[in-house]
Amino acid sequence: MSTPAISVRGLRKSFGATPVLDGIDLDVARGESLVIVGGSGTGKSVLLRCILGLMRADAGTIRLDGQDATGGAPEAFLRRFGMLFQGGALFDSLPVWRNVAFRLLHDGMPPNEARARAVAALAAVGLSGRVADLYPAELSGGMQKRAALARAIAARPSVLFFDEPTAGLDPILATVINRLIREQVTALGATAVTITHDLTTVRMVADRVALLHDGRLRWTGPVSAFETSDDPHVAQFITGRADGPIATLR
Ligand SMILES: Nc1ncnc2c1ncn2[C@@H]1O[C@H](COP(=O)(O)OP(=O)(O)OP(=O)(O)O)[C@@H](O)[C@H]1O
């Protein structure tokens, strides 16, 4: 097997006496779309933050493209990386196109070229050129999400992270966003890691699924095996039953 894009071994992270990650082992192959699911507060965001070096793990190793990244993601990796944050995280004081082209401008691309790239990225997520000169506050929540997705893809990254990409969207717009993510992952040939509660996202975006519970990945497998799995954690997650191994009191 070729070197995985992301490789995590024995990752542990506690807050005070409470372990959140309790020995995570995970490989994400290049060009693969992995979706991580799990109940609220199970540590999905903490795992993502540790992988990116935004948070320091207590133990374990992280390798990105075969390079040790335990103390933080290498610059070379971050340059090829795009992220859609849960809340969108657009800069209010910048027009949409400058938000979308932020990285490109930062890297010294001439403004007219960067603007053209931003407009193309906006078009890829179904937003017209008219939106380019508006400010984030002038957009609806769904449009902001799409603009944030345009920003994540504008620099044509080879690794993409999506944190709750459909949270707060109506089901139709959620489908649009899921389709866009899948299209971008396929079009860019990118490696993608998505965190979600949304089963539709799992179905539309995942090649492989990992279920986080009690600090560990309880189940990982191809998306085709997810819905037919007889693992009680997976079954409870899919049916949304309150009774089962996943406690509802957290
Ligand atoms: N900086 C922090 N300090 C203390 N505790 C934290 C910190 N960040 C996260 N936690 C705790 O870690 C646990 C996991 O949080 P995390 O945000 O990773 O959950 P999640 O699975 O992403 O949840 P959700 O699906 O609700 O967003 C929670 O109990 C949370 O309170």
Helix content: 25-40%
Assembly classification: single chain
CATH architecture of the largest domain: 3-Layer(aba) Sandwich
Biggest sheet layout:
6 strands, mixed
- Output mean pLDDT: 88
Bound small molecules, deduplicated: adenosine-5'-triphosphate
The string of secondary-structure elements, in order, is EEEHEEHEHHHHEHEHEEHH
How much of the polypeptide forms β-strand, as a percent range? 15-25%
Which strands sit side by side, in order, in the main sheet? Answer: 6-7-8-3-9-10
Shape: globular
Report the total helices. Answer: 10
Instruction: Give a count of the beta strands, DSSP E runs of length 2 or more.
Output: 10
At the first level of CATH, the class of the largest domain is Alpha Beta
Q: How many distinct folded domains? A: 2
CATH topology name of the largest domain, in short, is Rossmann fold
InterPro entries: AAA+_ATPase, ABC_transporter-like_ATP-bd, ABC_transporter-like_CS, P-loop_NTPase
Organism: Rubellimicrobium thermophilum DSM 16684
Pfam families: ABC_tran (PF00005)
Keywords: ATP-binding, Nucleotide-binding, Transport
Please name the defining characteristics of this protein.
ATP hydrolysis activity; 10 strands; ABC-type transport system involved; globular; ABC_transporter-like_CS; 250 residues; P-loop_NTPase; 2 domains; alpha/beta; Rossmann fold; four-stranded antiparallel β-sheet; transport; six-stranded mixed β-sheet; binds adenosine-5'-triphosphate
